[in-house]
Amino acid sequence: MTGARGPIAAGSPDFRRINRAMAFGGFSVFAMLYCVQPLMPLLARDFSLTPAQGSLALSVSTATLAVALLVSGALADRIGRKQIMVASMVGGALLTLLSSFALDYIQLVGARALLGLVLGGLPAVAMAYLSDEIEGASLGLSMGMYIGGSALGGMSGRVLSSIVSDVTSWRIALALLGVAGLYAAWEFSRSLPPSRHAGIVHVRGPGWRDGLRIHLRDAGLPWLFVLPFLMMGVFVSLYNYIGYRLLAPPFGLSQSEVGAVSLLYLLGIVSSMWAGKLADRLGRRNVLWLVLGIMLAGLLVTLHDSVAAIVLGTGLATFGFFASHSVASSWVGRRARPPQALASSIYLFSYYVGSSVIGWCTGYVWEHWAWPGVVAALGALLGVALGIALRLRYLAPATR
Length: 400
Description:
By secondary structure, the protein is mainly α. Helix content is 79%, strand content 0%. Helix 4 (56-79) runs parallel beside helix 7. The longest helix is centred in the last third of the chain and has 53 residues, at 340-392. The radius of gyration is 20 Å and the shape is globular. The two termini are 23 Å apart.
């Protein structure tokens, strides 16, 4: 019965069931979203595309995902969170499977655009679900585990699709990921307990516009909505252009060696859970500025002209990014008033828009000022993010 029991604490059977489900959810969704990234050269070859045209297979998905996040949060507060998340995973798996049968590139891009719309039903809703169901003292750990699973999924989708396409074809790779997505949706559905503390918001509750007004009038949430735009924009830009630097003289690494840098994503699993537990113990306001500082320090280390220093700096920045994302996203969940799912949607909308806008603009910086210019621009953006985090240290606690 809704509300019959208190929030779920770490170590309880329901806590383990929720984290198991979220691990399948985060892993599957981000594996399906990012699996086409290493396949772009193959798509360009098979469909006679330019590199820019080949990139549409991914960019169209992230663009539609950003838009869908706003709608899915509002719908979930009315229809039910578990139902939305399960439908999102099943629909995403079917579209991934369908895309493997695309007869031309227009059909593939169309399927990927629909994929982004459908997958938008999980990320923001998952954050709101965890915020409502998990007790405050355990939320950071649970959110960190979900984000860690998402990081692993994004990395694994890239690696697995690349390996399978080398042995067979990109179509087989997508088909296998679609089948795996259906299995993950089944595991998610049977593991996740129904929402008990959110229920279904009645029509008389805050609508989309009223909810947006509530969140933007809060003293802290608008600042927390700016942070993911900056953090994700910097993080994506770092990985977008560090490869260009390592491929060029004086380093001259091979493409496979540069690709191995993506394994640093594994640090995200560690850092997101570590930061979540630390935030539960010390408070989010006392941890966020610290982990953003680690991200900035890592970025600066990449200025050194040695492969070891560049890898070390990228690793530190990766560690800091996922830790910052874990702390900031759980803070949104703790602070937001109903409709909470809308607040999570706005946070992730900003996250993906930052990825697109800053990631694209940084390309012009690279062309004109090379890596020192990239570090200067991204460092300035992280400086703004660090200033916001320091300002939030003095934010008065929210009253619900």
